[in-house]
Amino acid sequence: MPAPQYDVIAIGNAIVDVMAPCSDELIEQLGLNRGGMMLVDAEQADALYAAMGPAREISGGSAANTLAGLAAMGARCAFVGQVADDQLGEVFAHDIRVAGIAFDTPARPGEPPTARCLIFVTPDGQRTMNTFLGASQFLPAERIDEEAIAAAKILYLEGYLWDPEEPRAAMRRAIESARRAGCKVAFTLSDSFVIARHGDDFRALIEDGLIDILFANEAELAALTGQAQLEAGCDALSGKVPLLVVTRSEKGAVACFEGATHRCAAEPVEKVVDTTGAGDLFAAGFLHGHAAGEPIDRCLRRGAIAAAEIISHYGARSEADLPALMARKLG
Amino acid sequence: MPAPQYDVIAIGNAIVDVMAPCSDELIEQLGLNRGGMMLVDAEQADALYAAMGPAREISGGSAANTLAGLAAMGARCAFVGQVADDQLGEVFAHDIRVAGIAFDTPARPGEPPTARCLIFVTPDGQRTMNTFLGASQFLPAERIDEEAIAAAKILYLEGYLWDPEEPRAAMRRAIESARRAGCKVAFTLSDSFVIARHGDDFRALIEDGLIDILFANEAELAALTGQAQLEAGCDALSGKVPLLVVTRSEKGAVACFEGATHRCAAEPVEKVVDTTGAGDLFAAGFLHGHAAGEPIDRCLRRGAIAAAEIISHYGARSEADLPALMARKLG
Q1: Global confidence as pTM
Q2: Beta carbons within 8 Å of A292's beta carbon, 6+ residues apart
Q3: Which member of A49, A86, A95 has the closest CB to residue B55?
Q4: Number of C-alpha atoms within 13 angstroms, CB side, residue A59?
Q5: How far is B243 from chain A (nearest CA, A)?
Q6: HEC states along A147-192?
Q7: How many CB pairs (< 8 A) connect A and B?
Q8: Nearest to B121 by CA among B251, B39, B32
Q9: Residues with Cβ < 8 Å from B130, sequence gap 6 or more?
Q10: Which tens digits make up the pLDDT trace of B119-151?
Q11: Which of A98, B140, B145, B259 is most deeply buried (CB count within 10 A of its CB)?
Q12: Residue of chain A minimizing CA distance to B92
């Protein structure tokens, strides 16, 4: 039996988001890095949770959010990520499977529990994330289905997951499988702290020509290239990354492809409720267009529309009918 | 040390709601009782969960929702309910404690897990609930703090919890403590199915003069009294229940108190997103006014305002600043 053919296979953290509104003062009191992502251990997670108001739990995880968006738009997707054998693991697995995404990674028994991200959302809609990686960091390389990757169009990797050792090995193996088979490798840099720790690895992957599509925001691009200016950052990667996509929050996005620079404005939003998942859904919209062979400008527009939807409500999983939204906005 | 003095002590199910939008067709396919509440066993819960789309988890439980509203409006509250020693139990305990509600019932080790309610929300905002009671039905009577009840203004009891044997015994003990001490007993009938099973118990409590404040919706009032018409239902209880509050969804609410009938229109809502918790928050608003000695008409208005807030978003825990909302609406 041939391996199922996916548009996108993603490897990422299997996380449930625990989200609550909070005041700007609380962010200060807790000494959190406003708008950023911080890794926390079990003890820190407990202390932060105790300081958090009444919360809601919604499945998250950067690459998983991207896949959920892609699947909602009709792409055939598979996810690889490690949950524990517990209630939050069941929640994550349920939410991703009923989104129509293949997810076969068996739950890991015992401690640590399933990853969770404590997300404090300030009145301006900005999210400050505190991630307890839990089981997510123990994804073994054996979970990589090389045949499925070989048959896929795009392998999508989450930079966050480069931090722990086992998933890093798993992603390296996946990249090799993809390169051998001609499956494109897309990588999202995720956060500046990851680049601070693993920038050399990322630069080596890029120099070796292993990354076909790179997603970054402006801060990540600067951290990776050492260039503070957007243009200089893009130039530093030109000729090394065939397709570079840089998201710029309310300033829109830029893509560098085949020697040309494409720009796209942000999609207007009535009220920014929660920015969690903005980059993830931008990637979803962009990749959906790109996998279908659409022109870059249209891929950017799709990204901007999907990102605007996600920041208009709590949580990083779309609540709108994305295909209908795209049809309405793109005409 | 004297027992802490609470405005309201509630005994109820300790439940986490698992909520997802769904089509009207799915409700039919699954054979669910649209708009109602159904008890399900573990196997049925698994099957329904598998049929449910991507969901979000938000703490719920009827009486707990009422307390969360009361606490948000400044009332001093305590909750008694049974969670299991698991992740959903931690979620429930966290959410109720950070809402400012005293909650000391120790988690129950082992199986069954914490109660959850699978809530399907149709496009009209109507919720269809399927409750797996889990640990919630094993609340032992020893958990009742008779001193705290004796010092409280109001003991609030959830009819749903009359179904399982242990909590029923706990509530009977709590009622006795309250009566002895002059603490008012408020009871919400919760759902017609509870009345179908335990109507005789409820009628006996009422005949014995043990209920000071009774909350019901129209269907529950009819099931309890055997009178299909609202007026006849109210008449049937007159002289037996000092204060009767009947909620009527978009038709508003009625209260019968000291021989007079008070009516209140529903508060207009821009869009009904999810009706989960409408009755619970009506009770919260009403009781908040009543505990402060306000006139019945103003208590009804408070109930209508709190109910309108809760149905304008997902979940049965308020997202608005309730005191500010009340101040704005009541002047």
Answers
A1: 0.96
A2: none
A3: A95
A4: 34
A5: 32
A6: HHHHHCCEEEEEHHHHCCHHHHHHHHHHHHHHHHHCCEEEEECCCH
A7: 56
A8: B32
A9: B32, B37, B38, B39, B40, B44, B45, B48, B117, B118, B119, B120
A10: 999 999 999 999 999 999 999 999 999 999 999
A11: B145
A12: A54
- The pLDDT of residue A2 is above 90: no
Mean pLDDT of chain B: 96
Contact B86 A88 (CB under 8 A): no
DSSP bridge pairs for B262: B255
* CA neighbor of B37 nearest in space, from B120, B113, B115, B114: B120
Domains of chain A as residue ranges with CATH: 8-13+61-87+97-104+139-330 (3.40.1190.20)
For A174, the token pair is 């996946």
The complex's ipTM? 0.94
A52 contacts B57? CB cut-off 8 A: no
Size of chain A in residues: 331
For A245-281, the pLDDT digits (tens) are: 999 999 999 999 999 999 999 999 999 999 999 999 9
d(CA B88, nearest CA chain A) in Å: 7
pLDDT digits (tens, 9 = 90+) for B11-36: 999 999 999 999 999 999 999 999 99
Contacting residues of A for B54, CB less than 8 Å apart: 59, 68, 94-95, 98-99, 317
Residue in B with minimal Cα distance to A115: B87
- Assign residue B293 a region (left: φ > 0; alpha: ψ between -120 and 50; beta: otherwise): left
Structure tokens given for B78: 């305590």
Selected for mutation to probe chain A from B17, B83, B85, B98 (highest A CB count within 10 Å) is: B98
